[in-house]
Structures are given as C-alpha cells and as structure tokens.
Amino acid sequence: MRAQFVFSEIMVGLRRNLTMTFAVVVSVALSLALFGGALLMREQVSTMKDYWYDKVNVSIFLCNKSDGATSPKCAKGAVTAQQKEQIEADLKKMDIVETVHRESADEAYKHYKEQYGDTAIASVVTPDQMQESFRVKLKDPEKYKVVATAFAGRDGVESVQDQRGILQNLFDLMNGMNVVALYVMALMLVIALILIVNTVRVSAFSRRRETGIMRLVGATNFYIQMPFIMEAAFAGLLGGAVASVMLLVGRYFLIDHGLALADKMALVNFIGWDAVLSKLPLVIAVGLLMPALAAFIALRKYLKV
C-alpha cells in the first residue's frame, strides 16, 4: 500500500467532512479530558489519604469531674490515676500501636485557647472542664476498630474517636465528584462514538464510486478500509492531544497559578507534574485506538466490499 495514496485519501475525507471531523475532535477531547481528570482525581484522593492517614491519631478521651452528669459512660466519676496507668500500659502492649502521648487537662486547655480563643464560649471554659486524653498513633490507621473495641467500654473512658472521620467527608466528596466525572465522560464518549460512526458512514457514501472502482480492480478489503480508519484515528489523535493540553493547562492554573490552590491550601499534598505526565500516554493511546476501532466496526456495515 502506498503511503502517499493513503495520506491523500485521509486529507480528502477530512476536508469533505470538516464540520463533523471538528465535532469528533471536540467530543473526543472533552471525554478524554474528563477521563484523565477522573484518573488524576483518584490519584489525588489516594495521595491525600496516604499523607493524612499517616498523621492522624486515635484519641481516647477520659472522664473528668463534669462528665458524670452529661455522659452515662462516666457515671462512676472521673478517671483515677490507677485507671490511667492501666490504660497507658495496655496501649503500649498492643502490636498495632506505634506511639502513645498522654495529654493533660492543662495541655488540652492550652490547645483549645489557641484554636478558639477568639470565641465567646472560650472565655468561660476552665482547665478543669477539659478532658484528659491519650493520643495514639497506629502503625496501620485502618485498624482503629481494634483500639475502639478494647477501650470504648472501660471505666474512666468517655469516648474513643478516630480522627480519620474528620477527613472522611472530604474524601467522600472528592470520590463523589470523581464518579460524576466518570458518568459525564461516559456520556461524552457515547456522543463521540456516534459522531465517528456517522462521519465514517457519510465519508463511505460520498466515496462509494471510488471504492467500487477499487473493488473491481482487485483491491483488498483492508486496502479500501484503511483510509477511513486512518481518518477516524487521526481525528481521535487530535482529540487526545487537545485533551492532554487541557490536563496540563488545568494542572498549571488550578494548582500552581491562577487559582493557586497549592498556595491557598498549603496543608494539602497535591499531585505533581509527574502524575499528570504519566497519564498522557494513556489518554493519547485511547484517543487513537477508540475511533479507529469504532470506524472499523462501522465499515463492516456501511462499506460493503
């Protein structure tokens, strides 16, 4: 097969269906941009979980004098020194525990004033109203329930809290956005495939005389179909390239400049450029192969050779 002939046929087909080719490029670009964005969102959530779950602790809050009237778990009164020593000793014996820090009521009061010192209620809170607690760092944060089961019902323990719950709502929101992006991507992908099939059908119909002559002179099915498949693949490749640019520009303006989320949300560990660049080959490959496969299937119906 002569490459010059195939290339010329591709250019002819693209010029004849310029509007539909443009629609295919835009649809493929948007669907692949959403596809790449969903992959990056999933990696961002995973990165944030790895970063934050390594820093959160399990907090075991102990009963104080004022908890007896408000919490049934503290009906027996404030935690005793013996109970505190036993709890700490049992924590240190557990294989899943990495470190244990006892926070006194005075330390808890100091931290409270640092965070809420400007509020009205902070002016009436006293150190004796604050709860003592143990801050437990686990080797595997996923094993929080082991600690909760062991200490939640003990005398002197008011509650056991996993700080991961504070972050879970954020992760659930991001995962929800990821699912929405995947649904929209699927919709755009269906639209792109329909446009590709229609473009191939119109192109095959407009060149039915040429393909008929080629068939009469003994051209193979593959030789006749190749220009149509290459047209769709070329349009998909352009769409993949546009989607790649959109992902790069989106990373640049959302995180580094423009909205500059990296500066405004310094506590968030955002994905780097390497994560974006690693997804681009997949985006381009899908953009190239998906239209080519759709065109090949469509030609079996619309191009009788």
Automatic annotation (TrEMBL):
GO biological process, one term: cell division
Stretches assigned to the FtsX extracellular domain: 56-160
Sorted UniProt keywords: Cell cycle, Cell division, Cell membrane, Membrane, Transmembrane, Transmembrane helix
Compartments in which it is found: Cell membrane
Domain (ABC3 transporter permease C-terminal): residue spans on this chain: 184-304
GO CC entries: plasma membrane
TM segment ranges: 21-41, 180-200, 232-255, 275-299
Topology term for the membrane: Multi-pass membrane protein
Highest taxon, organism lineage: Bacteria
Ranges in a coiled coil: none
Purpose: Part of the ABC transporter FtsEX involved in cellular division.
Quaternary structure (record): Forms a membrane-associated complex with FtsE.
Family under the similarity heading: Belongs to the ABC-4 integral membrane protein family. FtsX subfamily.
Official protein name in the record: Cell division protein FtsX
